[in-house]
Structures are given as structure tokens and as C-alpha cells.
């Protein structure tokens, strides 16, 4: 997980969020502790029990109107009651002028006080997206990620099993490479993980016997993607006589990456097997399941119904003495 400080936020989004520092510059390296954003409405009345002081604080027009209605002495008291708790950062929206007491307390407690021209809702929405991305859990996996018919297939397996060769064949058929060898995985939601290329490899690929190739330059910009949701893990392994492989597909198997559960398909490799076509079938079959069509279960159900129908017909004919 990335460390996000107020200084880092300003480096990344000063222009987009239209931010400038009003006070508390000594605390510019303060760390933002989580993705939560809070408007301290009730706390400004002096009630600070259960006040979420670890969150980024946003002062909008409502809060500022209330503060300006207080006497300077009362305003300093209520503001100091929250500043002394240790706030990571305070942001005033709509470029509203900060009361002198707020600037003085920001310097005294070394709490960055920022201002933005954006409305409160717009700023909170933008900041929430930024913090969600920065605080998202990440990991790196050894594998290859390809967009096949809009479905992100993550190929895993031992080194040399043929993951890159499968990806290369898919690219040649018009599908798009996301990452090869190292896939950076980020969890954006409880059930959504996003894959992207490693920092240094980009869209390069290692082909045994050939060397490093650049997919984007060889096949064009349409052959690559910067990121893609990982929807199915395709595990490649060499065929083993003693192993049992799924033949009907009645029971789906799953794997978990960063707490997100995704379908797992294990493909045994043997000479002559066309993994590229199988990959396209995996992608299309996944989409069918998304749309509520589970072919093995429908086949099993129709087979059972047919057997029951034939059994009923047989019983009727046996009892018919006409």
C-alpha cells in the first residue's frame, strides 16, 4: 500500500484539484491515514466524542457560515477542540476565506490547511477517487494477462509452460496484451481486481529462443491495453496421467487474489492441443455464465428430464393391455 502525504497529494493533484496552501506548512509531510473524508459539522458545536479526527476534514460553505456566526473567542475554542486531536489535513472549499483563528491554529498544530476553488461535492468526489486508488491493496503475480473478447484472462503456471506463447498467439488473432511475466494486481472493490504491466516490462514479452519483443511496436497500439479487470485465472500445467481433470464443468472452481474471488480454469497441456481456441471458448463461456447461462447444468437438467419422461412413457406402455 502506498504512503500518501499531504505533500504527495499536492505533487499529484495540485492543479486538478486547484489546491493551494493557506496555513500549517510545517506539517506538509503529514500522512493521510485512510480513504475516509469527513465534514466536521457536529464537532464545530463543541461535541467531539467519537469524532473521526483521523480522516481528512473538509470545511464547506455550511460549516464556514456557522463558524463566521461565532465570536472570535468561541470560534477559537471550538476549532482548537478538534485541532488538538491531531487532524491529517483540513481543506476549505469554494475558495472561502479562512478565519484568522483557523490559520493560527493550523500553524500552531502544524496541520496543513488547504483551499480549493471546487465545490464541496466535487472536491470530495475527486479526492475519494484519488485516495481509493492510492490506498488500494496491491500485489505482483508471475503470469500473463490478456484481454480476450473483453474478458481479462490471467494465465498462471510454472516458468516455461507456455504462457507467453499463448498470449502471443492470442495477440496475433486480434486480442490484446495487458502484461507479461509480471502482472501488478490492484483491488479496486471487494470483488474487482485490476491487472496492469510491471513498472519496467511494459508491453514487452520474452519468447524462449527469440528473446525480448515489443508487442506494441510489432502489432500496433490496438494490440495492447494499459490495464484490465482480471476475471478468470487460467492455470496451465503439463498433462499428468495420475491427475483428474474437470470433464463436465458442473461445479465451478474459484481462486482468491487479494481477497477477491474469481473463477479458476485448469488446462492440462499436451502436444497438439490448441490453447488459443480454448482460451477464446473460456472467455465466451465466462460471459455466458455472467448472462445466466450455465451450459453443463442446463445439459444435466435436460438429460434428467428426458430420462424421467422416457421412464414415465415406459411405465405407461407396460401397463397398457389394450
Main features:
322 residues, alpha/beta, eight-stranded mixed sheet, 15 strands, 27% strand
A few lines on this structure:
With 322 residues, this protein is of the alpha/beta class.
Structure description:
This protein is of the alpha/beta class and 322 residues long. The longest helix is centred in the C-terminal third of the chain and has 25 residues, at 295-319. Helix 3 (72-83) packs parallel to helix 4. The protein has an 8-stranded mixed sheet. It has a 5-stranded mixed sheet with strand order 1-5-4-3-2. The protein has a two-stranded antiparallel ribbon with strand order 10-11. The relative contact order is 0.10. The chain contains 9 helices and 15 strands.
The 3D shape can be described as: elongated
Helix percent reads: 25-40%
Alpha plus pi helix count: 9
Number of strands: 15
Class per helix and strand makeup: alpha/beta
- The overall pLDDT average reads 92
Between the first and last Cα atoms, what is the distance in angstroms? 80 Å
- Content of β-strand: 25-35%
Spatial strand arrangement across the major sheet = 12-9-8-6-7-13-15-14
Q: What is the N-to-C succession of helices and strands?
A: HEEEHHEHEHEEHEEEEHEEEEHH
| Rg calculated over all Cα atoms | 29 Å
Low-confidence stretches: none
Q: How would a crystallographer describe the biggest sheet?
A: 8 strands, mixed
Amino acid at each position: 500500500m502506498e504512503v500518501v502525504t499531504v505533500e504527495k497529494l499536492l505533487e499529484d493533484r495540485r492543479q486538478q484539484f486547484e489546491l493551494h496552501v493557506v496555513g500549517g506548512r510545517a506539517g506538509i509531510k503529514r500522512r493521510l491515514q485512510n480513504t475516509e473524508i469527513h465534514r466536521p459539522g457536529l464537532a464545530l458545536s463543541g461535541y467531539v466524542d467519537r469524532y473521526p479526527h483521523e480522516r481528512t476534514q473538509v470545511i464547506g460553505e455550511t460549516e464556514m457560515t456557522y463558524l463566521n456566526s461565532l465570536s472570535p473567542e468561541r470560534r477559537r475554542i471550538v476549532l482548537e477542540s478538534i485541532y488538538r486531536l491531531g487532524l491529517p489535513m483540513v481543506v476549505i472549499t469554494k475558495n472561502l476565506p479562512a478565519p484568522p483563528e483557523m490559520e493560527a491554529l493550523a500553524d500552531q498544530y502544524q496541520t496543513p490547511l488547504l483551499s480549493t476553488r471546487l465545490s464541496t461535492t466535487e472536491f470530495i468526489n475527486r479526492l475519494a477517487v484519488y485516495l481509493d486508488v492510492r490506498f488500494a491493496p496491491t500485489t505482483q503475480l508471475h503470469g500473463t494477462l490478456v484481454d480476450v473478447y473483453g474478458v481479462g484472462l490471467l494465465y498462471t503456471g510454472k516458468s516455461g509452460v507456455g504462457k507467453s506463447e499463448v498470449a502471443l498467439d492470442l495477440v496475433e488473432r486480434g486480442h490484446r496484451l495487458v502484461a507479461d511475466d509480471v502482472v501488478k494486481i490492484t483491488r479496486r472493490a471487494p470483488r474487482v481486481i485490476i491487472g496492469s504491466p510491471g513498472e519496467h516490462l511494459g508491453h514487452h514479452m520474452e519468447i524462449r529462443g527469440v528473446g525480448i519483443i515489443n508487442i506494441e511496436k510489432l502489432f500496433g497500439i490496438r494490440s495492447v491495453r494499459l490495464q484490465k479487470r482480471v476475471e478468470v485465472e487460467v492455470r496451465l500445467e503439463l498433462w499428468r496421467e495420475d491427475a483428474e481433470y474437470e470433464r463436465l464443468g458442473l461445479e465451478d472452481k474459484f481462486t482468491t487474489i487479494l481477497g477477491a474471488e474469481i473463477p479458476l480454469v485448469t488446462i492440462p497441456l499436451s502436444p497438439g492441443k490448441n490453447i488459443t481456441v480454448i482460451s477464446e471458448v473460456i472467455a465466451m463461456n465466462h460471459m455466458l455464465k455472467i448472462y445466466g447461462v450455465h451450459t453443463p447444468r442446463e445439459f444435466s437438467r435436460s438429460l434428467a428430464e428426458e430420462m424421467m419422461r422416457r421412464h414415465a412413457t415406459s411405465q405407461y406402455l407396460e401397463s397398457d393391455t389394450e
